[in-house]
Amino acid sequence: MNIFRLVGDLSHLLAIFVLLLKIWKSRSCAGVSGKSQILFALVFITRYLDLFTNFISVYNSLMKVIFIASTVATVYLMYIKFKATYDSNHDTFRIEFLVVPVGGLAFLVNHDFTPLEILWTFSIYLESVAILPQLFMISKTGEAETITSHYLFALGSYRALYLLNWIYRYYFEGYFDLIAVVAGCVQTILYCDFFYLYITKVMWGKKLSLPA
Amino acid sequence: RKTPEKKDEL
Question: Which stretches are transmembrane (chain A) (predicted)?
Fold first, then answer.
């Protein structure tokens, strides 16, 4: 464990709880893409099946359980409890256009052709693009609530911090996972446009709105 | 450079 990974994990955790708290406190999930949340739930469930097969540490297992539970809770709040506030007519990204190609790619490009490894690879690929429905929704409505942009900033920072972690691990531990690194780069690149808007607007107290 | 068999990251 190094500082980049720890801060990355905490940033990830913060993102999920910022979103949960926003929905819970405002009793509304307006402006949040339910499709991205379903994809994240799928990401965690397919990646953390190894909870049952190998034990790393209490920290590792605990975080996995928290990630799965909190994301499933977000999906529950959006699609059941606060369904009336869900902005479905702006959340029109077709997730099959992500899930199907990513599934195919996981079958073709993986470290090992075993069920758990293919699901892990699927999860890594899917995570890299899972935010697209959310970004698509913001581009459709042209704006995002400030709290939603804080969520996105924390979520995007997590993978960027993991990139630093992989550089660190490559030099100091000889660790290198090409699949994770390539997917992590793709994931971070997708946030670049948002990071720019966040830094130039939200950090200066302005609302995130897209130029017309 | 090797990919570890056990995945210790989240």
Answer: 62-80, 92-110, 122-139, 178-199
